[in-house]
Structure formats: C-alpha cells, structure tokens
Amino acid sequence: LHGLTQAEAHNALAGFLHAAQGRGAGIVLLITGKGDPHGERGVLKRQVPMWLALPEFRGLVIGFADAAIGHGGEGALYVRVRRERIS
After folding, report:
1. To bridge 44 with a disulfide, which of 21, 26, 32, 75 should be the other Cys (CB 3.0-4.6 Å)?
2. In contact, 81 and 62? CB cutoff 8 Å
3. How far is CA 51 from CA 10, 60, 69, in A?
4. CA-closest candidate to residue 18, choices 57, 55, 51
C-alpha cells in the first residue's frame, strides 16, 4: 500500500484481502510505510488499522499486529485472514 493515495490503498487493501482469503492464506504482510517522523505524513500507517476494524473487513480479518523489524517493523502489519466460509 506504501506510495498509494488513501482511495487507492483502500481499494487495493480490499482486493488484496479478498484474494488472500480465496488462496487460503492464514497471515499476510501488509506494507503501509512508516511515514514522516514529524507526523506530517504517514496517513496510511494511521488509517489502515482503522480500516481493518471496519465492518466491511470483518469477514476477512481476524486481527492484526505490528510486523517484526525484519519484516518492516513500524511500517508493516501482520494481518490474520479469516477462513472463507463455504456455503
């Protein structure tokens, strides 16, 4: 998502999570970027966790956590993907 506008990132996030769920992924790494250390930027770093908590993502996401330093640290999230329900 790093480098995208908010609208682009939101759409990309939804598509990415739907695809991950369809592949049966259990955990995905989501790159938001760290943003500016002075707080001027880093909109996605702040927005993405809020988006993941929205009802539209409830059927896709179990939870999320900051990534380890080797996987992007503060600029990335591990997202647990909910199993797809088969009707």
Report:
1. 32
2. yes
3. 8, 12, 23
4. 57
The rounded radius of gyration (Å) of the Cα atoms in the chain is 13
At residue 15, what is the residue type? Answer: G
Block residue for tokens 């059927």: 59
Q: Which amino acid type is present at position 34?
A: K
Record the tokens describing residue 17, joined without a space: 């999570």
pTM of the predicted structure, to 2 decimals:
0.87
3 state DSSP class of 68: coil
Tally of CA atoms within 13 A in the half-sphere of 69 that contains its CB? 0
10-residue mean pLDDT series, the chain (87 residues)? 89 96 96 74 88 95 95 94 83
